[in-house]
Structures are given as structure tokens and as C-alpha cells.
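Work Package 3 (structural annotation) set out to generate three-dimensional models for the target panel prioritized at the project kickoff. During this period the team completed the workflow that converts sequence records into C-alpha cells, so that structures can be stored uniformly alongside our sequence database. As a representative example, we reproduce one entry of 312 residues exactly as it appears in the project archive.
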Amino acid sequence: MGKSKVLVVGGTGYIGRRIVKASLAEGHETYVLQRPEIGLDIDKLQILLSFKKQGAHLIEGSFNDHKSLVDAVKQVEVVICTMSGVHFRSHNILLQLKLVEAIREAGNVKRFLPSEFGMDPARMGHALEPGRVTFDEKMVVRKAIEEANIPSTYVIANCFAGYFVGNLSQLGRLTPPKDKVYLYGDGNVKVAFTDEEDVATYTIKAIDDPTTLNKTLYIRPPHNILTQSELIQKWETLSGNKLDKISISADDFLASMKGYDLAGQVGVGHFYHIFYEGCLTNFEIGEGSEEASKLYPQVEYTRMDDYMKIYV
């Protein structure tokens, strides 16, 4: 079988541009939706033009123009949506319902990968307000996909290293702290960290794989399942810098939510589920699911020791 033609929606975004790159690298005929809504955002336009230079095709289409979406979808077999669902950037999860309707009408798509790439929303029915909206809206999109009988794969990428590793999982910063680090509880809850480039590679591997059809693909490479304490220890060994550890109880951490704006409150809630509950690793990957590093052992994924070297 030949490689599927792929349309990436949200291709100029944080994970989207990596997926475009991975799709091209794997030899897929790759299309990227160019939305007129970018207006005068020259950075996004230049990213799109760089994709074109690398061999991608740009397709104009708007979520405000149903026919343009249908026409775009008709040109491919696989659609991957990577629109942002985080409150500190933009929160557009439900816009995907328009894309689902376009895919349903086009009738030719053999695989749709909606914007997931974080925690598994199917396991987050108990999530705290206000952050639960992320999971509730992703489940609305899943319901629409399944009701439309659209073949799909849900990619659960857990914690992107760029947001959780370089900063030793500290809220409000992206680089390693210099003198002190806040520990969530005892810091011994297991967390799954992933390199964003690896997320893109695994995603593209899955699109033509019958094993992942109508399943959830978890990206939980075994060497990257670490506690926060282990992550800090790796950084201390790498940097030669010992940090003061300050433990925060679950109650105190949740109480801190009052001091944040909406985006910060969402972040606190999500961090609570990850670092206190262990929602990324407190279950076995069972029927109806696959684990990416087992499924594609040929992918040499980046270990967090190596990932952190750039920060030294």
C-alpha cells in the first residue's frame, strides 16, 4: 500500500509544525490548511511558506466556510488536527466540530486524528474546575467523531518536555530554577514525559497502521516515565547544581489556585492531576489501546537526560 495523503490542520502551531515535518520526512504527500484568519500574522505565513519550500502543499480553507473545509478534506485520506486547547495560548477545541462535519460530508477520509496530545480525556471525568473544560470539550469532539462513524486514532502524548522537563515541572517558567525547586508532595508520583519531535514521529507512524485504527495510542516510553524527584536528580547530576527542595502539600497547592487568572487556575488543576494523582501512569494500557514505543521500537526516542543537555 502507498503512503496516505495527509492534511494537517493547525500546522503552524507548537505540535502541528512538528507533525508537518514528520509527515514530510516519512514521505507522505502532505497538505497544510492555510486559513485566511491568520490575517497579518507574518510569522505564521512564513512557517507555511517554509513548509511549501520543503514540499508541502498549502490548501486554503476556513472554519467559517464549510465548503472550503470539505474541498480541502476531499484531497487527502488522513486528517490530523493540532489546534490549541491550552488557555494561555488559544482554546479552540470545539472548532473541530466543523471539521468533523466536513469529514463526514466528504466521506473519503480513512483516518482522523483530532487534537488530543495531552492527558486522556476519557479518564478525566473527575477533573477539577475550571480545567476540566479541556477534557469535557475533547469528549464532545470524540462523541461527534464516533456518531459520524469516522475512523479515528486518539494520540495521548502526556507531558511535553518543553513545558514540563526543562523547568523541572515548575509552574510559570520554562527554564531550570537556579536555587530552589518546588516538589509536589513527596515528588515520587510517576509521570510520562515526551519529546515533542517523538510525538510527531509516533503520530505519523500510526496513521497507516491498522493496529491503531479506532484505538487510543499512548506515548509512554519506559525510560521517560519518571518521578519529579528523579527528574530533578537527573538535572542536578547534569548541571552540577544542587537545589533546595520545598515540598508543597496537595491542599496548599490547590489553595494557590486563588491567586491565578483563569489560565493559571487551569494549569494548577492539571498539575494537581498529574503530580499528585498520577493520572498519566496510574493505569495499565489495556484493550482498545496501544503504547507507541512498543508498537514502533525502531523509533529511537529521546530520553530526558539527553533532552535536558540543551539547558546546561
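The first helix runs from residue 16 to 25.
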